[in-house]
Backbone:
């Protein structure tokens, strides 16, 4: 017998599981199919293990900084297997939490790899299911480029890196994107000698120049070697051989050269593609009615919170709630190195291209009391606003807790507030957020501390 649902979601990552739970809240009969672990890339081999690793590195850094302040400890020793156990405990807590929430909301959890047939039946193992609507949320996997010698040697991807047996001594990372940079920063704080090898002219090319430059200075202070415009001629089991730099020795090689969508699930469906991604309309419907695609499977930001926002949009649209569109301009982009970076909305250049008369204000953390107390006074807050009405168009923060601080600017921006609202907030003291107030005050020429 073919079991029937209102909605079947394929993939239980942050796109899929959030969509399934929200649909169930809206009274739908929902099933979700997952071939590996609930929580997807994000919880198992992405956001969460990488932030746990970063926190471990940050703690090691804090201990050595505390020594400089006069809180003296014996020499630092990293017990890597204990760190790994802690990472796994956090991952398990969160993935178990996802399963609990699915169950609590009466979503049927089906284990196995799903295929979707041309007549929109979902097959898992030897069972067949059907539903009115299907959401494809199968995410992405590491992309491995052809590099001479790579096939003959052992290398890590982000799928394997978080389960290394031992802490590397010398880590070579091919590429300098966000993920590569985050892992480089974490490992350097744990005492690993890190070299980033980037074939493009710079690392972090998705970011604006001031952000890039500040983060690069931070990475260099962590003694991370950054090789840009690198020409890799070959890889051996212990060296990256470069045409234009000295060869780089490693005991661990991480290939972090981007990700590609998991499109296998679409094979039997005759749906339109947008390059390597599944093409969707404004409501994430594919070219096949009743089939939706969200998250890393479609073009745009490959971010967990974007995937979840897509999923909620689909199911609320199906329920006739007419939700607001998911605006890419209100999706934050974060870089979790020890010195964090976060941005949202338009850069000065993009705002000018869009026809705005632009005002850009910048405050720094140098004179911010809380940042000084914490010993983390590097970085800045830049706000891009429209000169005419003070509309907040974009914000770029590099500094302590940047990924949390950006929420305050986003709150004002997303509710269509202006620099006036941002400037009128009475910030707590001492707080990092005072730097946001300073940047907003600077727009009116009334900043006190700069
Ligand atoms: P995924 O999370 O990839 O989930 C897809 C799920 O579908 C998987 O569980 C997979 O097993 C399952 N699946 C695939 N095919 C099938 C099938 N045929 N049948 C059944 N199940 C199937 N994003 C952030 O926002 N913040 C971060 O800090 C961050 N850090 C990251 C760090 C790293 C190291 C990496 C690799 C990624 C990071 N990301 C981060 C990106 C984030 O993980 C992804 O954008 C997000 O997980 C995408 O969600 P998704 O639901 O689209 O897909």
Residues:
């Amino acid at each position: 017998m073919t079991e029937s649902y209102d909605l079947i979601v394929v993939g239980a990552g942050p796109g899929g599981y959030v969509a399934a739970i929200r649909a169930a809240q809206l009274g739908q009969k929902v099933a979700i199919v997952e071939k590996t672990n609930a929580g997807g890339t994000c919880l198992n081999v992405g956001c969460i293990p990488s932030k746990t690793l970063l926190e471990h590195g940050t703690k090691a850094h804090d201990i050595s900084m505390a020594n400089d302040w006069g809180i003296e400890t014996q020499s630092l020793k990293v017990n890597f297997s204990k760190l790994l156990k802690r990472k796994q405990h956090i991952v398990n807590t969160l993935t178990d939490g996802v399963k609990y929430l699915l169950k609590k909301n009466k979503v049927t959890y089906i284990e196995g790899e799903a295929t979707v047939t041309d007549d929109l039946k979902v097959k898992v193992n030897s069972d067949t299911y059907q539903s009115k609507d299907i959401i494809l949320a199968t995410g992405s996997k590491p992309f491995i480029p052809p590099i001479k010698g790579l096939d003959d040697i052992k290398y890590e991807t982000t799928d394997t890196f978080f389960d290394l047996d031992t802490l590397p001594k010398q880590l070579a990372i091919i590429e300098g994107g966000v993920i590569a940079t985050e892992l480089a920063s974490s490992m350097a704080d744990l005492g690993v000698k890190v070299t980033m090898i980037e074939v493009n002219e710079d690392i972090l090319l998705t970011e604006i120049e001031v952000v890039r430059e500040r983060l690069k200075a931070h990475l260099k202070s962590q003694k991370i070697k950054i090789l840009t415009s690198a020409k890799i001629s070959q890889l051996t089991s212990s060296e990256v051989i470069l045409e234009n730099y000295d060869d780089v020795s490693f005991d661990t090689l991480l290939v972090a050269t981007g990700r590609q969508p998991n499109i296998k699930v679409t094979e039997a469906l005759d749906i339109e593609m947008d390059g390597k991604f599944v093409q969707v309309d404004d409501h994430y419907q594919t070219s096949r009615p009743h089939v939706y695609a969200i998250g890393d499977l479609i073009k745009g930001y490959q971010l967990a919170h974007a995937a979840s926002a897509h999923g909620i949009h689909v199911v609320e649209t199906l329920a006739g709630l007419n939700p607001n569109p998911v605006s890419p301009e209100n999706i934050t982009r974060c870089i979790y190195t020890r010195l964090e970076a976060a941005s949202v909305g338009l850069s000065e250049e993009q705002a000018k291209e869009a026809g705005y008369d632009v005002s850009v204000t910048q405050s720094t953390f140098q004179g911010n009391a809380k940042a000084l107390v914490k010993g983390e006074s590097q970085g800045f807050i830049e706000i891009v606003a429209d000169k005419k009405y003070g509309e907040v168009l974009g914000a770029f923060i590099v500094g302590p807790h940047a990924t949390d601080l950006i929420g305050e600017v986003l709150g004002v921006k997303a509710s269509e507030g202006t620099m006036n609202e941002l400037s009128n907030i009475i910030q707590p003291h001492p707080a990092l957020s005072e730097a946001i107030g300073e940047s907003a005050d600077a727009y009116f020429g009334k900043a006190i501390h700069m």
Remarks:
- The chain is about 35% helix and 25% strand.
- The first helix runs from residue 16 to 25.
